[in-house]
Amino acid sequence: MNQQFSYDIAHLIGATVLMAGFSLLYQRRLFAVLNSFAFQALALAAAAAWQAHVQDAPHLYFTAAIALLFKAIAVPFALHWLVERLGIHRAVETALSIGWTMIVGVALVALSIMLVLPVTAAAAALTRESLALAMSVVLLGMLMMITRRNAVTQVVGFMALENGLILAAVSAKGMPLVVEISIAFSVLVAMTLFGIFFFRIRERFDSLDVAYLESYRGDRS
Amino acid sequence: MLIAGALLSLPLLALFAVLAGGRHSGHSITYAGCFVAAIALLAGGLTYLGGHDASPRLVLPLGLPWLKAHFRIDNLSALFMLMINLGAAAASAFAVGYSRHLPQRRRVTPFYPLFLLAMNLVLMADDAFTFLVSWEFMSLASWLMVVSDHTEEENRRAGNVYLIMAAFGTFCLLPAFGLMAGPGGDFTFDAMRIKDLGLMGGFLVALLAILGAGSKAGLVPLHAWLPLAHPAAPSHVSALMSGVMTKVALYGMIRILLDLHGTLSWHWGAGLMLVGGITAVMGVLYAVLQDDLKTLLAYSTVENIGVAVIGLGLAIAFKGDGQTELAALALVASLYHMANHSVFKTLLFLGAGAVISATGHRSLTVLGGLLKRMPWTGTTFLVGAAAISALPPLNGFVSEWLILQSLFKGPAMPHWAMKFGVPVVAAFLALAAALAATCFVRAYGIAFLGRPRSTDAAQATEVSFGMRLSMVVLAVLCVVLGVIPVTVTDALSHAVQPLTGTQFAVSADLGWPWLSPVSATRGAYSGTILVMFGLALFAITIFAVHRLGTQAIRRADPWDCGHPEDIPQTQYTSQSFAQPLRRAFGHTIFKARETVVMPEPGDDAPATHKVTMFDPIWSGLYAPLGRVIGWIADHVNRLQYLTVRGYLLMMFLTLVFMLLVVAVRQQL
User: Fold this and answer.
1) What whole-number distance in Å separates Cα of residue A127 and Cα of residue A90?
2) Which residues cross the membrane (chain A) (predicted)?
């Protein structure tokens, strides 16, 4: 197996993660968002596994396993269950229309490619393009957090952002496992927090729209 | 040892003042202790003056763990220690008696020793960290005393403005020192002296130092806080702030510009000189129109700082041009004026304090005739007023004369800007000196001469012995510093030599009593001989009048001084005395307008005379600035009420913007 082939596969999987990021932005239904997220996590797990194979770094298999079990299976199921259990409105409420979001997303991808490719001119080709892809995924995750009103979609955006970070982490050679574990744990903590958060919002306001929180801020005159 | 002991005793005195609570004796003992400490520091400073260049350095493990506190007393520090502790000793001695009359003394006394401590530490600091901490400590200690009488709206406003301006000053000095320390972060002054600042760094350091130290010293247009804050404090503190703390500010300016900065071009000197000239004229113009005795004195401080800064600017210009001998002359003149000002301004503020404690008033409108009731205060105040008006043979004359003499050497500079600029500044200085004389004729004449304008003034009694003593000592010093000018300039030249590189030698031409900065044939002055001659003339005149004049006794009505009616209202008031000047200068500068409001026909109310003035610097610079800051604050305030998504959006946009900047820079 020559090097070029391994690069191509790595880029293919990375691009799949990115496409899943766009697909997250495109969905109009909450369950579809969750499915897209599961798909993205699956692609991430594949990327990590492929890197583990190519770099001959067995600890990355562990990362792939975390991504697969935790992000691609546990989290989407948990959120699915939450949405059903709470009877949340199933449509995605957008702050910026889907079309515009896609255009901005494309611009962000262009920006990150423009930015990363010259900066990492000295680095290995594999790292360079994967970093550009990872950064695009991060930016798209942030974009999702901003342009979607519903708290569930914000959580998903946040975790998509984490996916981007992990993609960057596995693409760089020699990244120690400690980092991935800490990232996974931070997602876990965020998940727990947001879970509690949902229940509280649900209890108080019968809605998950974060705008309802704002009337409770003491400093608002 | 002596100095360390005195410095350590000051915080203990502050603690003692807190413990003493409201008892009179506790406050008196604290001030007496401050007096002893100031005398000790004065003696300590004297031992260092005229010492060697390699003054001992002291490094103490104080402050931040990786930055030790460095202390060093060189000639310049020693000289300023003399000025400061002299004023401090006099003010402390005065306060022993004066603090009895202060209702808010429990809020003043504990901070007084700390204020002294901070000022002395600024002078001794040998690294930027110690310097700035002491500087800020000095500001805060004095601020606490300014707002000690916080029940009055006026004082609260003074405190606010003072705090803002003090913060502004430190805000300027901080990056100035940071630039001098460089990225390595070596904050000792020794390292800063060696460091080359480069073109941009040198420019910024000089600008920031002038702004930072200048705002503390009260250079126009940064003076706005000074006439508010100095009079708001109790008089012994006003004396310290006006007479002494402004000198600490000038010390900071000299230390940075002439010592640490190293290479300043003559442009800075020229600019500083012009600012000094404008400060002098504006300060005295404000002063001459004031009705409040202490505000008048505070504005007069602005004027004198301007005069000293003219000398300082000239010294920098000469030094930048390589004419070190003339630079030494100008700097000696400037330092001489600072020393003089610290003596007579302290004296005048203490005199004002004596007037306030005797009458309870500080408005000239209700004073009058105090000389008869308070002969000691009146006489010493007269000496101070004459000295500040630059009358020979007192000290104020010598220093202003020296500054004028060095200005006359200005055309020796090769630059046309200086050739033309120097005479303009000399004209400013002459105008300021003349207006200062008017100002103090008015202040003294209205307050101490004539008839009392109120019952409080009529029933005033002389102040206690300790207060009188400190004023008398200062008045004697005013005379002494004026009579032996050469001794003073010799002492000053020790401090000047390391800064300008040349020993100042004026008395070489004509021998000891003659001060002849320019040449032996023109521009020579000897206070000593003048006084001896004057005394001789006085004796001869008295002898002639008594021996040669007629001995016959004549009886006649005494001259009624132009107001035959025996009511105080017929005298000049403080406003009417200032009217000619208000019309001549105030009309354009302060937009002073006088209107007479006539009563309606048939109405028997008196006609009233109304004067409206407005402060061009306050309404032209400070008020718009305040409005702009308020506007920005109002609009930035909205950021506190964004939604969660709004904050996320802001972070996102910031990130994208910064990424764009990086991306664009790469393409270039």
Assistant:
1) 39
2) 6-26, 33-53, 59-83, 95-117, 123-144, 151-171, 177-199
- Which residues of A lie closer than 8 Å to B, measured between beta carbons? 95, 108, 111-112, 114-115, 118-119, 139, 142-143, 145-146, 149, 210-211, 213-214, 219-220
According to the per-residue pLDDT averaged within each range, which of B432-446, B543-557, B558-572, B628-642 is highest? Answer: B432-446
Domain membership of residue B560 (yes or no) is no
> C-alpha angle A26/A28/A31, rounded to 5°?
105
pLDDT tens column, A169-215:
887 776 666 556 656 656 765 676 566 566 656 665 556 666 666 66
**Nearest to residue A208, comparing CAs of A34, A80, A87, A35?**
A87
Identify whether residues B353 and B473 lie together within a single domain: yes
Same domain, B224 and B286: no
Same domain, B300 and B210: no
> Two tokens at B566?
């025996």
Tokens (6 digits) for A163: 């996916």
Contact A111 B662 (CB under 8 A): no
Interface confidence: ipTM more than 0.90: no
Question: Has residue A126 been placed in a domain?
Answer: yes
Q: Check whether the bond before B414 is cis (ω within 30° of 0).
A: no
Count: domains in chain A: 1
Distance from CA of A214 to the nearest CA of B (A): 7
Compute the half-sphere exposure of residue B303: CA atoms within 13 Å on the CB side of its CA.
32
Secondary structure element (H or E) that encloses residue B504, with its range: none
d(CA A149, CA B645): 8
Residue B270: inside a domain: no
Average pLDDT, chain B: 87
* B18, part of any domain: yes
Q: Which one of B644, B650, B661 makes the best mutation probe of the A interface by having the most chain A beta carbons within 10 Å?
A: B644
Listed in sequence order, the residues at least 6 apart from B97 whose beta carbon sits closer than 8 Å to its beta carbon are B28, B463, B464, B465, B466, B467
pLDDT in tens, B410-469: 777 888 888 888 989 999 999 999 999 999 999 999 999 888 888 888 888 888 888 999
Instruction: Look up the pTM and report it.
Output: 0.81
Per the CB < 8 A criterion, the answer to whether B610 and B597 are in contact is yes
Name the DSSP letter for residue B513. Answer: T
Q: pLDDT tens digit string along B362-380?
A: 899 888 889 999 999 999 9
The region that residue B127 occupies, defined by phi over 0 for left and psi between -120 and 50 for alpha, beta otherwise, is beta
The pLDDT of A82-87, averaged and rounded, is 74
Question: Can you tell me which residue has the tokens 């202390």?
Answer: B71
Instruction: Give the range of the structural domain holding residue B578, as residue numbers without chain letter.
Output: 572-612
Contacts 24+ apart (CB under 8 A), B570-576: B571/B368, B571/B450, B571/B451, B571/B453, B572/B445, B572/B446, B572/B450, B573/B365, B573/B446, B573/B453, B574/B291, B574/B364, B574/B365, B574/B442, B574/B446, B575/B291, B575/B365, B575/B611
Domain encompassing residue A82: 3-216
Interface test with A, best of B647, B649, B650 (most A CBs within 10 A): B649
DSSP three-state, residue B52? coil
H or E element at residue B641: none
Number of Cβ pairs closer than 8 Å across A and B?
A: 42
- Is there a domain that residue B453 lies in? yes
Looking at the fold, whether B643 and B498 belong to one and the same domain comes out as no
Query: Percent helix, strand and coil across chain B, each rounded to 5?
Result: 75, 5, 25
CB-neighbour burial class of residue B589 (10 A; exposed 0-12, middle 13-18, buried 19+):
middle
Count of domains in chain B?
4
Instruction: Give the chain B residue whose CA is nearest to the CA of A147.
Output: B645
Closest Cβ opposite residue B656 in set A111, A145, A214? A111
**Do B285 and B411 fall into the same domain?**
yes
3-state secondary structure (DSSP) of residue B57: strand
B444 Cβ contact list (under 8 Å, min separation 6): B381, B382, B385
User: Looking at the structure, do residues B322 and B198 belong to the same domain, yes or no?
Assistant: no
Looking at the structure, tell me whether residues B584 and B630 fall in a common domain: no
